[in-house]
Write a structure and sequence with these properties.
91 residues
């Protein structure tokens, strides 16, 4: 696979020092930046997929006329959270 480079970044010395201060043993600043780019790509892809699912759900609800009230959804989420907390407390 061919490799390519990312554009060089100019940052102030404080940002560079902050990045260097959190490097792990044996980690390079280049490796740190590369990991940050990869993680942000994953996060943005997840956000895009989440929004797409939400828009699809909205369109399906409009087409079917079937909606769930905010109160019902919050009750479901509360029950799910309570169940997870109980399960976690028992573990």
């Amino acid at each position: 696979m061919k490799t390519a480079t990312l554009p060089p970044l100019r940052v102030d010395s404080e940002l560079r020092a902050a990045a260097e201060s959190v490097l792990r043993e044996g980690e390079t600043l280049s490796g740190f930046v590369l990991e940050a780019v990869r993680l942000n790509i994953e996060r943005r892809e997840s956000q895009r997929e989440f929004i797409a699912r939400g828009l699809t759900a909205r369109d399906e609800a409009r087409a079917s006329g079937k909606y769930v009230s905010a109160e019902d959804m919050l009750a479901r989420l509360d029950a799910s959270l309570a169940k997870a907390r109980t399960k976690r407390a028992g573990a």
